[in-house]
Amino acid sequence: MKVLVIAESNEAGLRPASLRAMACGKLMAAESGGDVHWLVAGHQLDRLAGEASRYAPVLLVDRPELADPLAAPWSAAIAATVAQEGIDLVLAASSSFAKDVLPAVAVKVDGAMIADVTSLKRCDQELEAEVPRFAGSVVTTLRLSCWPAVVTVRPSVFAAAEPLASPAEIQPLELQGVASDPRVTIEQHASRNASRPDVTEASVVISGGRAVESSEDFERLVGGLADALGGATGSSRALVDSGIAPNDMQVGQTGKQVAPHWYIALGISGAVQHLAGMKSSRKIIAINTDRNAPIFDVADYGLTADVYQAVPELIESLKKN
Ligand code: FAD
């Protein structure tokens, strides 16, 4: 089986989520005696290609049309790579970018797609995937017998790919039919708070719940603790619905899936829809005034306390040390 893993990047380089998708790609290639490559696409990519080659061989498509993450040129580039290189399986981490681009790839290569899988294996000539539904309370097993297959994987369930002993080959590709679509252009990229890491990729996530009463308090308590620990800020849906936290911070069933080393829940009750987005975190700490709150059932460490009292003290003592 020939596997292609789509490399997504940010200012810091390869996204950790893509390294996790690569771990899945390596498993699939090893199981079938096949091979796995990155597709590193975009514009002016020397640094990114070099970084990616530390983990797997790279197919490099460097074109100005791919400078922005737009579905039309990107899906054309991925589909052309699939056709030219005889790819059987396209993998990417579940992300907004993958949601936008990968369905178009599946259509263009006349393949089929499964999104957001938590397990993937080959069974004879088919792929078998597990996809959680209803906040993880149901796991659906799907069989896909159409090639090429296009699959997005939930990064939180895979460990990041290990680097190779020495960098692999970087092979530039010339592709036909990759054109930008003048009907869709990017006006601007506005970053809310570039000083904090993305909630899906941070190793420490501090999330606030309904206990936090205003945006100012959110910034002071949740943001303050995040800054003291070098972490990202997240939120329960209660705070997003009330306009206290921005939508892109929501963790949970209808928000983002996170699996940091440390997840700190401040005044979050632990509804099943919230747990669906963070229960794979390695260690969970909860602060809540209600000792019977369900969040304590999944927490490794719990503190029965008022966040308005405990969090400023915590920030103060972290600043001192
Ligand atoms: P609450 O449940 O109101 O809990 C607040 C907690 O704060 C309580 O435990 C309370 O004891 C504690 N508290 C209060 N004051 C303090 C204080 N001063 N100090 C310390 N603790 C205090 N929710 C999500 O989060 N993410 C999702 O993606 C999501 N998707 C959903 C999808 C569907 C289809 C549905 C129906 C719901 C979804 N929800 C989601 C909503 C979810 O069911 C809960 O309503 C929500 O998670 C509750 O948020 P919360 O824990 O902040 O608030």
TrEMBL record:
Write down the required cofactor(s): FAD
> A single GO BP annotation from the record?
fatty acid beta-oxidation using acyl-CoA dehydrogenase
Q: Which residues form the Electron transfer flavoprotein alpha/beta-subunit N-terminal domain?
A: 3-186
Binding positions for FAD per the UniProt entry: 210, 236-237, 250-254, 267-274, 288
- List the signal peptide residues: none
Q: Name one Pfam family in it.
A: ETF
Does the keyword section mention Nucleotide-binding? no
| Gene3D superfamilies, per database record | HUPs, TPP-binding domain
Q: How is the cofactor bound?
A: Binds 1 FAD per dimer.
In its keyword annotation, does this UniProt entry include tRNA-binding? no
Q: Which UniProt keywords apply?
A: Electron transport, FAD, Flavoprotein, Transport
Q: Name one GO molecular function term.
A: electron transfer activity
Spell out the family assignment given in the record's similarity comment: Belongs to the ETF alpha-subunit/FixB family.
Q: Its biological function?
A: The electron transfer flavoprotein serves as a specific electron acceptor for other dehydrogenases. It transfers the electrons to the main respiratory chain via ETF-ubiquinone oxidoreductase (ETF dehydrogenase).
Q: Entry's PANTHER family?
A: ELECTRON TRANSFER FLAVOPROTEIN ALPHA, ELECTRON TRANSFER FLAVOPROTEIN SUBUNIT ALPHA, MITOCHONDRIAL
Q: What is this protein called?
A: Electron transfer flavoprotein subunit alpha
Organism (species): Aeoliella mucimassa
